[in-house]
Amino acid sequence: MSHKKRKRRATILWIIISVLAIISMVGFSVSSLFIGQ
């Protein structure tokens, strides 16, 4: 039971990391667009 909870926490951590990566990528592309203009 505790092992399953640990795995769930790991998946939540991976989701947070992926969301942060997507946000940073979008922010970088938007900033590069503004710099281009």
Blueprint (SSEs and pairs):
Elements: H1 2-36
How is this structure best described in words?
The chain has 37 residues and is mainly alpha-helical. The chain has one domain (1-37). 95% of the residues lie in helices and 0% in strands. The protein has 1 helix and no strands. It has one helix at residues 2-36. The termini are far apart.
Helix content: over 70%
| Overall mean pLDDT | 90
Biggest sheet overview: none
Task: Tell me the Rg in angstroms.
Answer: 16 Å
Strand content: under 5%
Q: What is the 3D form?
A: rod-shaped
How are helices and strands ordered from N to C?
A: H
Number of helices: 1
Secondary-structure class: mainly alpha
List segments where confidence is low: pLDDT < 50 over at least 5 consecutive residues: none
What is the rounded distance between the termini?
54 Å
Can you describe this structure in just a few lines?
The chain is mainly alpha-helical and 37 residues long. The protein is built from 1 helix and no strands.
List descriptors.
37 residues, mainly alpha
